[in-house]
Amino acid sequence: MNTLLIALAVFSLASLLNIFYITVLYHRGLAHGSVKLSRASTWLIAKTGIWVTGIDPKAWVCMHRAHHMYSDTEKDPHSPVRFGVLGVALGQLRSYESTLIGLIKKDKQYTQLVSDIDFGVSRLNRKKLWLVPYFLHLAISVALGVATGAWVLGVAYYFGIMSHPLHGWMVNSLSHKYGYRNFETDDHSTNNTFVSLFVFGEGYQNNHHAFPKSANFAKTSGEIDFGYWLCIGASKVGLLELGKAA
Predict the structure, then answer these.
(1) H-type helices in 26-131, by residue range?
(2) Model-level pTM?
């Protein structure tokens, strides 16, 4: 039982690190500017983002901005309207790959969406070495299992740190299909409470699409945005500054 509890803690901490990078640094900071990133945070994103999450920060931001421009249309890179609820898992991967290729080839369709970001696609992706971070985390997982004699800890670490594809699918599919709406937006975005709790506020898609510049995705009584709590914590240690929420 103690091993299972430790495994749960390892999974939770690894997943939390992944979520911090994506929801705070990539999403609220880099994509929308709803929090002001420090120079150290921007350096952290550019140099370590791909290694921690396996996801290129510039490509992620590019795809996300396209999602807001074309939300729930045939041009949306990851909408259940285009791919179906289950199909979003593969659809978002294919769109991510297309975005990476477009940025590397300097296709204006993609580069114009991230012209404000002053660093390029990660060297790993430019050299077609995108699998390296996944193998690195796999090696860490194996080492953790060997060192402790508990392979469940290694498995917990790997699926925690590499949890973004699942989180992305939940947000992009379930929160654009199932839930309630606080605001009339020109898309199918919903507020899905389960997804919001599991993915630190990201499930409040209707709120977010109505107020994309707001760092706090929770807008009504009873809604809790744990991702905003992470922003508050990060502001305390100087990684970012909180503006006036919209």
Answers:
(1) 39-53, 57-69, 80-83, 88-104, 108-111, 123-126
(2) 0.94
